[in-house]
């Protein structure tokens, strides 16, 4: 029997896709500029089926890719030409939700927001909140160590994963971590989070739940420049406050958001959203200090949400910003480089200059509290050469972030899109160590081949690739 | 006992290339982990010390692994900041590297998380003497394999940590502690379980057997009184407000309550396990962070009872076999082969127990 025949023996017809029309939706992720045709897609419903599929790939040397909802913005879930896609959306059960233990044990295809929804009756929630949380899966979040608006205070996905069951690329099933917040021995589950599916497929994930904050205080402040908004963030930090979220939007994204959802934002150069959260007595005191800091920061206008509805109104425009900017332009590239917070002003100024130089509009809406930029480079793919120019501009922005002491990506991952920039951030020895880990766990290089590591899949002479 | 010192990155590389089996030592505050075995050379890293970068406004610092935590905390304090994972054994000389390698957090981990939630980056020398960096120096970063997280609890198995970067937070402006004593363990446990699911933002929530809870609050001085009162209302119990708050918790985080015991052990726990753990032959002890972390003192028979019950643990002092159980072989072995192919560093498997 060949590979496909064996797959057919494992998966009934509706759960093994091989026809061109069936495969089309799996050819790319949210970074639609890249497309590749897989050999087949399987839709497992139980973890045993995933394990069998991985073992089969190993026996036949067929590369494979685990896929959640395909919302990766870096080409992370781009298939390997001729490889197998293991689509995990049907494995979407919450296996156990134990409010006393403050944990949820989930299958990888569970959608992020669903966890919080199920935990809500117990006063608990799952903290990491990527903007894609209504669709992206926990498996994808784990692979990318996804973030969101609350990372400064609550950390990224890695801190909220307590245990993992993983099938390694060689088909072995291992359990990493435990059911509590602490463990002994190397933090292997912590290490797996963020390795972008290169070291295996997560089959079952134990998540930490937190008590939902009791009170929120949400404030919107308008500024005459991005720099002034950036300075306000620094002043908030210097005051000793630790807000749950601090977000900034520039004029272009404000206008886009207004056009899309009519959030009622003031039309200014920059908006800052600050949200405090905690016990009501504490938030009350923090709010007094925040009011004073914002007043001194030279805000043109300040609005404080007086009700949950007003709070949602403030967030509405911010949450819609990505898709809204999409309306301004036929195509766009989103980057998510990080800079040290104190260098935000410098970074934004330089992005403005690059935007002029390349003759392409760049909209900025970002997580200011943790220095995580989200420049959206607008372009028109139908105009010859514009995609290339946009990619080059995006690349310049990435290099800028690294130069300022930051990172290539705060949450979207390296995928295929940024792997060429890895040597900007890491020395050859660092990358070789990653390659060696990959090779030890996946000697045939089957799991997510061609992602993250610039030398990967380029033959045996790694040393030369990095020389 | 053969011993070598490394006072720089280059000297650490040189040592790794020269000696076939090495045991790194920070300050030696966890002797079960840092005492060399036969054939091992002790690599003393206490000279590799000092803070390299600290920008209070970024909430980030980078320091040499051999830096005593005491020095780091003093520097942070001068800027109104602290290590939210609240490392233990600071007064006894614990270093940053030793604390990461052992994977230790203290009582205030309850508020924002443990060491694993705050580590941002590492530079280490692997088993072939190569310098490898993982992570970064910013509070948010998802680029590349996260070697920094691999170091947490690694006991030095993958390499000699040279530099570490951490996220820090502003210190609470004021703190207060409520101590409540119950009639039985079951009552105290029930109260603790109740508090765990409420949004009270407790700094610490400790259970001291047989039946005492210590609850620490931190925040604006103006709000603390009200929050304390609410706590008393929720629990329907007055309790006692501690007079010496800071001094008390310094003693706790330095594990002073273990001092009389010959063997010191860390046990990752959960509230559901507490009754089972309380049936073992343990000595002085305290459950931190709402029952998620037990530090216990004991004699040999206590350790034997833990092992017999199959409960994972790490010995910090007083016994040879430090880690139980050994890390999951299928994953761990491959990582070890990739980073330390010649087994220069600790953590080899002997009979199911992590032989250090
Ligand atoms: C509009 C929009 C907004 C976004 N906002 C954010 C944001 O705020 N923060 C953020 O962090 N990201 C954001 N993203 C990016 C994206 O949603 C996240 O990266 C998300 O985690 C991907 O989840 P997914 O289920 O779609 O995964 P996919 O795109 O299907 O896969 C992503 C990667 O994970 C791997 N993978 C999937 N499942 C598994 C598994 N079980 N085991 C191992 N590997 C697996 C895949 O192989 C692939 O490499 C956004 C994307 C969009 C389109
Ligand atoms: C009773 C007593 C009194 C002391 N008094 C003083 C004093 O007054 N002043 C003073 O300066 N010191 C003093 N010390 C020494 C002090 O205790 C040590 O500095 C401290 O114990 C350091 O321990 P550590 O936390 O660094 O971990 P260690 O116990 O040294 O190591 C823990 C684990 O981490 C590993 N490890 C450590 N560092 C690294 C690294 N960089 N990379 C990889 N693995 C690593 C070790 O191999 C071991 O597995 C005293 C010690 C004792 C016992």
TrEMBL record, chain B:
> Which superkingdom does the taxonomy of this entry point to?
Bacteria
An example of a GO molecular function for this protein is: catalytic activity
Give the UniProt keywords, A-Z. FAD, Flavoprotein
Record PROSITE patterns: FAD_PCMH (PS51387)
Give every FAD-binding PCMH-type domain span: 1-171
Q: Which InterPro entries match?
A: FAD-bd_PCMH (IPR016166), FAD-bd_PCMH-like_sf (IPR036318), FAD-bd_PCMH_sub2 (IPR016169), FAD-linked_Oxase-like_C (IPR016164), Oxid_FAD_bind_N (IPR006094)
State the Gene3D superfamilies in the record: 3.30.465.10
> Positions of the region Disordered?
1-39
- Identify this protein by name: FAD-binding protein
Q: Which organism is it from?
A: Thermus scotoductus
């Amino acid at each position: 029997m060949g590979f496909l025949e064996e797959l057919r023996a494992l998966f009934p017809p509706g759960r093994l896709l091989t026809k061109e029309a069936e495969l089309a939706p799996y050819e790319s992720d949210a970074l639609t500029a890249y497309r590749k045709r897989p050999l087949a897609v399987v839709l497992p419903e139980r973890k045993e089926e995933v394990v069998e599929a991985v073992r089969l790939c190993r026996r036949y040397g067929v590369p494979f890719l685990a896929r959640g909802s395909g919302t990766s913005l870096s080409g992370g879930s781009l298939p390997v030409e001729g490889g197998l896609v293991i689509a995990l959306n049907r494995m979407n059960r919450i296996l156990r939700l134990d409010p006393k233990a403050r944990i949820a044990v989930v299958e990888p295809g569970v959608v992020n927001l669903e966890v919080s929804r199920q935990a809500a009756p117990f006063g608990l929630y799952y903290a990491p909140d990527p903007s894609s949380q209504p669709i992206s899966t926990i498996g994808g979040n784990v692979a990318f160590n996804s973030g969101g608006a609350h990372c400064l205070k609550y950390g990224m996905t890695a801190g909220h994963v307590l245990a993992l069951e993983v099938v390694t690329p060689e088909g072995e099933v291992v359990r990493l971590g435990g059911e509590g917040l602490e463990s002994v021995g190397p933090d292997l589950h912590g290490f797996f989070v963020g390795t972008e599916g290169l070291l295996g497929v997560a089959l079952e994930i134990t998540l930490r739940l937190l008590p939902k904050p009791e009170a929120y205080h949400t404030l919107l402040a308008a500024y005459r420049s991005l720099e002034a908004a950036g300075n306000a963030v620094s002043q908030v930090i210097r005051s000793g406050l630790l807000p749950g979220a601090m977000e900034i939007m520039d004029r272009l994204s404000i206008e886009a958001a207004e056009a899309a959802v009519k959030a009622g934002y003031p039309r200014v150069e920059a908006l800052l959203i600050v949200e405090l959260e905690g016990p009501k007595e504490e938030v009350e005191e923090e709010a007094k200090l925040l009011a004073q800091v914002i007043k001194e920061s030279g805000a043109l206008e300040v609005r404080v949400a007086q009700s949950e509805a007003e709070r949602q109104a403030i967030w509405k425009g911010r949450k819609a910003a990505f898709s809204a900017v999409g309306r301004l332009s036929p195509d766009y590239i989103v980057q998510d480089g990080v800079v040290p917070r104190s260098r935000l002003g410098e970074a934004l100024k330089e992005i403005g200059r690059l935007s002029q130089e390349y003759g392409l509009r760049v909209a900025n809406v970002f997580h200011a509290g943790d220095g995580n930029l989200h420049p959206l480079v607008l372009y028109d793919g139908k105009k010859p050469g514009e995609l290339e120019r946009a990619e080059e501009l995006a690349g310049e922005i990435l290099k800028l972030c690294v130069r300022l002491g930051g990172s290539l990506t705060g949450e979207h991952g390296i995928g295929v899109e940024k792997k060429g920039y890895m040597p900007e951030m890491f020395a050859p020895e660092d990358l070789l160590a990653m390659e060696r880990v990959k090779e030890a766990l996946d000697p045939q290089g089957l799991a997510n081949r061609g992602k993250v590591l610039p030398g990967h899949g380029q033959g045996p002479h790694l040393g030369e690739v990095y020389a | 006992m053969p011993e070598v010192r490394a006072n720089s990155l280059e000297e650490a590389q040189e040592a790794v290339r020269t000696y076939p089996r090495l045991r790194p030592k920070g300050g030696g505050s966890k002797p079960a982990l840092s005492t060399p075995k036969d054939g091992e050379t002790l690599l003393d890293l206490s000279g590799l010390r000092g803070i390299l970068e600290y920008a209070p406004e970024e909430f980030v610092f980078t320091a040499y692994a051999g830096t005593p935590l005491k020095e780091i905390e003093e520097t942070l304090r001068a800027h109104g900041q602290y290590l939210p994972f609240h490392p233990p054994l600071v007064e006894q000389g614990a270093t940053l590297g030793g604390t990461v390698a052992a994977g230790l957090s203290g009582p205030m981990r309850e508020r924002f998380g443990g060491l694993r939630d705050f580590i941002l980056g590492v530079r280490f020398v692997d088993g072939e003497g190569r310098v490898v960096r993982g992570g970064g120096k910013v509070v948010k970063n998802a680029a590349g394999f996260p070697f920094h997280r691999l170091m947490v609890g690694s006991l030095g198995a993958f390499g000699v940590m040279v530099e570490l970067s951490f996220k820090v937070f502003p210190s609470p402006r004021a703190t207060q502690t409520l101590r409540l004593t119950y009639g039985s363990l079951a009552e105290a446990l029930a109260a603790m379980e109740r508090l765990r699911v409420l949004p009270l933002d407790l700094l610490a929530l400790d259970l001291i057997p047989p039946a005492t809870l210590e609850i620490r609050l931190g925040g604006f001085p103006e709000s603390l009184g009200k929050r304390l009162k609410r706590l008393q209302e929720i629990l329907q119990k007055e309790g006692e407000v501690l007079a010496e708050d800071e001094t008390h918790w310094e003693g706790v985080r330095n594990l002073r309550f273990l001092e009389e015991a010959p063997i010191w052990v860390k046990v990752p726990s959960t509230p559901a396990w507490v009754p089972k753990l309380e049936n073992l032959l343990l000595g002085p002890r305290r459950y931190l962070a709402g029952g998620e972390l037990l530090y216990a003192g004991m004699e040999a028979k206590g350790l034997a009872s833990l092992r017999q019950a199959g409960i994972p643990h790490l010995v910090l002092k007083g016994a040879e076999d430090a880690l139980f159980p050994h890390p999951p072989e299928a994953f761990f072995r491959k990582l070890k082969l990739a980073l330390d192919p010649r087994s220069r560093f600790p953590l080899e498997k002997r009979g199911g127990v992590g032989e250090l």
